[in-house]
Here is the input.
Amino acid sequence: MIVLDGVTVEYSDSVPLERVTLELEPGCTAVMGPSGSGKSTLLRIIAGQQKPTVGAVAIDGVAVAAASWRSSGDPRVALIHQDYRLVPFLTVEQNLLLAAELREVNRSAVDVDDALDRVGLPSAMRSRLPRTMSGGEQQRVAIARALMTGAPVVLADEPTGALDEGNTERITEVLVDLGRKERLVIVVATHDPGVARRMDRCLRLIDGKLAPAG
Ligand SMILES: Nc1ncnc2c1ncn2[C@@H]1O[C@H](COP(=O)(O)OP(=O)(O)OP(=O)(O)O)[C@@H](O)[C@H]1O
Here is the structure.
């Protein structure tokens, strides 16, 4: 379980998160809120990519590790972006293996076909370059890359923001399955009410504060 305790993020001219306290269980949580309400900041804080000004974040009782010269954040968390961020000159397989290597995943746990299968892509796609794939396929590769790390927490920042309706549906389905069937903690920042409805729970941020549930 992820616990945020009184998390505030403050810059000289803005306060993107203010005293946010919440618990996130395995399953799917949507985070909605207007542009600038702090959704991406919240995901970066959970991933350890940014330190709160005040407050604490822990996963299963252990404080989230901050990014350092060796890592981009806590190894228990994988972050997926709207624009996929695949390495363009590497094949699908190489993109996935690179993620496992950077996270120092045990070789016996590295299984490219399994990761592709879990996001509904055929193993024949292993040798494709990202530019030869549709946006929806690339986003599925980005999710498979997150799975390669073995992280029990997968955060997705607007994962369907650049996709059409059909691909939005497919990506949402993949994330929902990972939360419900595999019991990963899935947190999805989204502007799409249709995506949020599919999740188990929806949080709302307004000006950096958590809106009351309901
Ligand atoms: N490094 C920074 N320095 C100053 N202000 C920042 C910084 N990073 C974010 N902010 C501010 O924090 C606020 C929240 O930004 P954030 O990206 O978390 O919002 P968001 O809800 O994800 O927005 P969107 O839906 O448009 O992606 C914004 O007002 C933004 O300008």
About this structure: The pocket of adenosine-5'-triphosphate is lined by residues 11, 14, 16, 33, 35-41 (CB under 6 Å).
